Model the fold of this input.
Amino acid sequence: MRRAVFLDLNGTLVMPVQVNVPAEYTPIAGSIEAVRLLNKAGFLCPVVTVQSRIERGVYSEHTFRDWFQTLQRQFSEGGAELLGPYLCPHSSRAGCDCHKPKPTLYRDAARDWEIDCARSYVVGDTLDDIRAGSAIGAQSCLVLTGWASRYVDAFGHEAAFVDADILTVAKWILRIAS
Ligand SMILES: [Mg+2]
Done:
């Protein structure tokens, strides 16, 4: 069984948090380096993301998946492998089984890649990410690059670790997991 660092996308790997065209997302400084370091230490990095803008018709699932492949190539050129995407295209009102903090997409990734969730981590910028981590028995880490910068006082205490961005969080994981 392998270990993973499940990564949120918007506000964790890329910014800005919301766009009308996926091509407007750009990798957050240090995010490629973070994934490269995690991979090197043996961690798989599946991306688990809610894209409710697909259900709302802002962009299509096809457009999103096309763009994600471009992002994967960009990371790959930096020696970093992003798995997935494990995608929920619904709004939170849709009552689907895949919306965070439900564990479904994380369990899918765990099954696909033989991941031991109890020895893994979830990194994200929202309370849903943190609670998804709890739901699968992983340790949750909060980054302050996305929404969390506004809400850290409200839910930061639910995370095992809180820091500025994905690179500092990755270095913390590598320290405590070694
Ligand atoms: Mg996010």
